[in-house]
Amino acid sequence: MKRAFLLVFLFCSLPGLLAAQIGIYQHGTVVRMHMGECIPAGHGFMVAFGGPSTPMGPEPCPEYTLVSDNVVFVIVGKLSNSLIPLAENIDFRFHKNELAVRVDDDKHEAKFAIKEMMVRSDWDRLQRHIEEKMRDVEDHEAEVRLR
Amino acid sequence: MRNRVRVLVLPLLLVTAMCSHDLLMGQSISDSSGESSKLAYRSTVSEVRLVFFATDEHNRAVEELQKDDFAVVDDERVIRNFRSFTRANLIKLDVIVLMDSSGSVQPRFQQEIADVQQLISQWPWGPEDNVSVLSFGGMETRLVCSGDCRSSFTAGRVQSLPSGGATPLFDAVELATNMLIQRAQPDVWRVIILFSDGDDTISKVSLNEVLKKVLASETQIYAVDLSRPEPPSNGSAILQRIADDSGGRRIHSNDGAIGIFRSVIDDLHSARVVTYRLPNFGSDFHSIRILPTHNLKLQFRCRRGYYHRSGSAD
Questions:
Q1: What pTM did the predictor assign?
Q2: Interface residue ranges in chain B relative to chain A, Cβ cutoff 8 Å
Q3: Domain B92-270 is in which class?
Q4: Sequence spans of domains, chain A
């Protein structure tokens, strides 16, 4: 019986353990998070023109912007409580068109649908542009207020 | 001949130089005075100050919490760099107890008075804490005692006031919030303990208007629900919304004065204050959420957001 349990345990925890040992995890930082629309199963960036979708629940799903060295991902949780710990560095890897994110130190992973992907340099440039525009608007508003 | 020329030219040059110097000086003075009249000094408050509570999966207050155990999500932006992080133990309190005396709560009104009396007498007040009591029912909100209720609150005083009639709940919350804003001081924690069934029937202000004011004032509301626990009422949902938005809690009156007392006191002891730089830009209203960075079992409670006007965070 004990052996059976051990086998089941090894079977369940092996993918995560292997991923960590082989070192295939990438690292990134979550810089944005909000509750948005859920992505129906079978949809997302990686699945083009998918089949019939499952109906979405009334609750919103968490959406994260995950910045890695070269790529920026916008990923969406499957449920309203699919949370990622917002540590400075998190580990993730690709897994069947989804992103598997390590959610704690016990090698547990949570799967997220990929909504968008962007090259890091493009994303940085876009952020700078947005910031400049917003700063201009704020400065203009401040000047109007001073008059 | 050369000497004569020198004698004539030198004074001429000297006079020219002096005149031009005066002209230049005059120009520069008038320029700088012109600039000074246009100078405007801008001072902006660029810090967000947030009181919050951390609990574990069993809803118990977390004693050991470090700065890197949580992140603030401010208008979608994840903030991990904080200017300060402290316990809020030493904050002074300004508490307003709002008592619903309308017709809908009359069967439980005597118990409500007893609970408020127990709450005031057993609270570990600090020397500089303020406590006021207001009663609302009919068309009005009436002052029972202001600031000094620790010594002046009596059941007789409440009973002597008119009771029954409609429920101007939102008007009463707005009035209490205005009172707290008027006497607001730094490092004073503003708290409303609201006894009601949540069933507003006559207020001039709407729920959304009052919630906006509560958020802007950084007042925390603990709603003591006087309605029957079953079936769930619309009033309970409203009380829950008011409490959640302000970062407080909804407590059922069945828990009794001790339960209410414990909920608020637990918060008082476990509250933390974090400050961070105001994110550079965004809308007037910033929504806030606090989430764990490592341990997903940790839960955090704080007000739903804050209003940011012209460089200041409210």
A1: 0.76
A2: 40, 42, 68, 70-71, 73, 76-78, 80, 280-282, 289, 291-296, 310-311
A3: alpha beta
A4: 25-140
